[in-house]
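Exercise (ungraded).
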Amino acid sequence: MTGEDFLQVKDISKRYDGIKALTGVSFSARRGEVHAIVGENGAGKSTLMKILSGAVQRDSGEILLDGIPVVLNSPLSAHRLGIRSVYQEFSLIRNLSITENILLGQLPTSKMKGVVDWNRAHKLAEEKLMEIGFTGLDARALVSHLSVSHQQMVEIAKSAVTKPKVWILDEPSAVLSQEELTRLFALIQQLKNESALILYISHRLDEVFKVADRITVLKDGELMGTVLSQNTNEGQLIKMMVGRTLSEIYPNRQKKTKEEVLAVNGLSREGSFKDVTFSLARGEILGLFGLVGSGRTQVARCIFGADPYTFGEIRLQGNVIKPKSPQDTVEAGIALLTEDRKRDGLVMSCSIRDNVSLATMKQVSRWGFLNTQKRDARVQIKVEELSIHPTQINRLVRQLSGGNQQKVILAKWLLSQAKLLILDEPTRGVDVATKVEIYRIISDLAESGMGILLISSELPEILGMSDRSLVMREGRLVGEFSKAQASEEKLLACAAGVIQ
Amino acid sequence: MSESSVKIPSLLVRVLKWLKVRSLGNYTMEGSRRRWVDYTFTAAFLLLILVAASMSDVFFTERNMSNLLRQIVTNGLISLGMLVVILTGGIDLSVGPVVAFSAIVVSGMVEKQHLPLPLAMMIALAVGALAGTINGFMISRFKLQPFIVTLATLGTIRGLIYVYSETPITPQDPAFRTVFGAPILGPFTLSVLIMLLAFVAAGFFINRTMAGRAIVAIGGNEEAVRLAGINVRAHILLAYIISGLCSAMAGILLASRLGIAQPSLGAGFELDAIAAVVIGGGILGGGGGGALGTFGGVVTLGLIDNLLNLFNVQSYYQQIFKGLIILFAVLARRQET
């Protein structure tokens, strides 16, 4: 069954508004193969996947399935050919149950035509979930009641239950915890054994090496090559993706000072975390690691005043603050980069200018009237400092790549001259090159005396950046490691509750 | 087949650029490549005038121009308030009754209480601001849907008007009409100047003030704005107060123009205002719209009414025509995916 090419992509090109997204990309893949597509943001991975799943149309080129040229002019036509995708953006209907989402359009009816047989529907959905090894999800639950990671699992399940011949996964792991990721990998293995072709897109190279048989690399919309994953390594792959070697990902830094910026004492929020105590010094990067749902984001939001807390004390530079809203904390000098930039970090319909200046309009206005020249000059300086591309500040943020969007948020908080910067997953969905830039920026900020709380579910990031690391599990602070003590195994064991 | 690559002749682009009228709905298009829809309305607008001028010898008379301008004052002011509310991602359905309430209050204060006009106006404006405050408070404090809240106040205020006066009020003082209605600058009456000034002020407010930028950003992503340390509730409240004030001012000027204030005034006004904003590039739900575009929308709607009147077209045809224009506006500005 393996050996011959099941999917052949020949010379695919695509332009958006005259801008090249893909130029003459060709690759082929077999049944029973996990084929990874990697590349920086803007390399054209998502466009290629959207073409394969019928969501966008190619300008030229040919797609062959089992040797036969196919027309993919809508998601439906792709579905008919057995091509299914899991997109980065959720396509779930939030106010419906898991059952309805999975069986959308094919709910079983009772004898009376058109009347849904709910008992059978739920049973069917549960059976289907069981078949792919997803147990422990209540099929009757509303999707909107699920956590983000569980929603992603449903999203994955929704396409997997159709037993696709070609299964496209676009960054499926961004919001998954380790445990769920293991489940996903098991499912991939299962479908692979059933001789499906799996196309796997991810920024996380370690994952790619774990699952992929072969890896196709794209750069600037062009094919860089396809390699066997056992014949390559992370360094080589990065070189292919970026076009240069990245000698040093994590910058070296001087040691922190003793001066305390933030002290949190016994902070609790009913139902999400309890008795969290730690302190953070000027110039220190403090890592906060935990699995999805461990309460790390909630701690950050409470310190920032975005959510109320039940007990505890927060001191900023020695002064007790009682943040009731982000208004208070921004004024006091705290900044928060949220984990989901689209949901609550950026105003997509506004320009770079508006987004960058959003938190600091007071500094450039008098009596509420903006000094637009002064504002624009300040924004421009930051845009150039952080090498945000494009540099025209009237561009809409919607048009930027993920990495540049993240830099726009950083620029916003740099202008506020905060004393404490909380970063919640600062490099999620960001390409390798921009990641390195962001690490350098964070490091520079720490050097300049800012205190930084770095929340991440990427262990290499926590280990590479932090002076100290904290670990949370089930709403409690369960471990603290110095840079010397910390290791991937220790942090993970601590976060998962395995005693070593 | 890519839809976006439809190009318009470069000569026409240059002409339009030269006329500096290309930017109807400028805001939404900021930074993105110009597409043919950006010019459609300007072109259609110019065409409309050309056709009118060639077919009717009355159109370009000073009298008709003056009429046209005075007629768009009401919708102009209401649309401005509507624009600010739509920018936040909301909607204000209660503008019609606010117009009527303020019209009848200002007339009543002048005619029955014999108050001087400025004082009567103050009271009428206060009524508008109060209506806006109630709308804004309910929406921002309790996170209720703007559509429902303003639908409720639409009915409530209409009822209150009849409590205040069941019969029309006609101020006898001739000054009530002439203050705003007499030409003071060419064909421009004070009412027209007030409206034009309001558009300039709104453009300034939206683009050059902290509150304006905050309001635009709230329509794009409320939570991101809250997390940037901005008081979202206060800004939403402000938007509805502005809408209330604009409608109240429109009511005062309308009462002055008509010389009579009827309690039934203003039915359906909200639809014309929403239409003007949308034609001018505004996006229901927030994320786009501007003062200049809205002005274009107001003038376009006014022109249609005016022209169809000149050609003696019956009013229900006007309704059909307006509906089609709105549909076309939304279609042309549809976001490509």
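Further reading is listed at the end of the chapter. For now, observe: Confidence is low (pLDDT under 50) at residues 1-8, 18-35 of chain B. Chain B has 14 helices and two strands.
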